[in-house]
Every structure is written in C-alpha cells, then in structure tokens.
Amino acid sequence: MELPTIVLAGRAVLRKPAEPVPPEEIGTKQLKQLISTMVAVMRKAPGVGLAAPQIGVGRQIIVLEDSEALMSRLTPAQRAERGRVPFPLRVIINPTLKVLAPSPPGAAGAGRATFFEGCLSVPGYMALVERDLSVEVSGVDQEGEEVRWEATGWPARILQHEVDHLRGTLYVDRMVSRSFCSNEEAQALLGRSVAEVRATLGA
What we know:
With 203 residues, the protein is of the alpha+beta class. It has one domain (12-201): Alpha-Beta Complex (Peptide Deformylase), CATH 3.90.45.10. The protein is built from five helices and eight strands, in the order αββαβββββαβαα. Strand 4 (112-118) and strand 5 form a beta hairpin. The radius of gyration is 17 Å and the shape is globular.
C-alpha cells in the first residue's frame, strides 16, 4: 500500500481546528485503517507523533510512540535533562489535554521547560519551544475504550505538540523566534544548555 505524503506548512488543513470523530465512526474498519496508515507514516518518517491533519485529514486523532532507537543519539545526561523515556504506541481519538501543576502567577518558567522541537510538517528546521512539564490527556482509542494518560517530560511535550496540530497550531507559533534554525546548524547547538543557545542566538 502506498502511504500518503505528510502535509507541509502552508496547507490549510494544518491551520484549521480538526473536527471531532463522531461516536458512530469509532471502532469502524474505515477508522482503524486510517489509524494504521497514520502509524505507518509516523514510523516511516520516522517521528514520535503524528496528527491526522498531517496527512490531510481534519479529524481529532493522534498517534504517538517513542523508542530506544529514536533516542539513541542522546547521551544519558541529555535524556535525563529532557525527561525522555520510551513509551509504546498510543492512539488517542478526540483528546482533551489538561496541564498538571501549572505555573503559579509570577513564577515564570516554573513547571515548564524549553528545548528544541522540530515537526514533520516543517521539515529541515527546529527551534526552542517552551512547554508544560506535566499534562494529562483523556480520550478514547481505536476500539472506543477510554484513554487517560498522565505524562511528564518529553512524552508530555510530544502530546502538547500533537494536540496543537488538532487546534490548527504549529510549533512555529510558540517558538522562541530567534532560535529558529536549520537542522544542520542546530547540530552545533544541541549539546549546549538552553541558556547558552539563547546567548549565542540573541534569543
């Protein structure tokens, strides 16, 4: 089966709020086939998450998965700093995201972290993005079973990134704009602290 290509920034479907999946469609053969296609596209890319709008389908569906292989280039210290841990495939339909332990008023940065992010729909580039450290997502899976997941660290970042796609939001809307750089140039920055990166780029 030929897989669909990933929709790139500039396509309207990435900028429109996705429609909820109607209850009568959940569990159907057609929806399961769409989800299987999304998983295959994500793994082929490879990526750690994909939202249905990224293959041109304006529905509230996300798939996520992170493996040891995808984080093999990170040192143990980098993995610990990011809170990056592997997790098995997750399928979430009509997700609702809630921030856990949000930053108190006046405590800028508390409960949040800033790291480089990229996106399969904005290939070749990355930028610093601040995200909440801990979130809870709820929804249903492809069988209609309830899903509830409390995620911290990098899994929480992936969730926020993918749910943003369902809202018509890309990471470039949230990025530290002066940190936007090509993947090639970013290689010289990835081993540095966020403070060093900000100083280097005047961000």
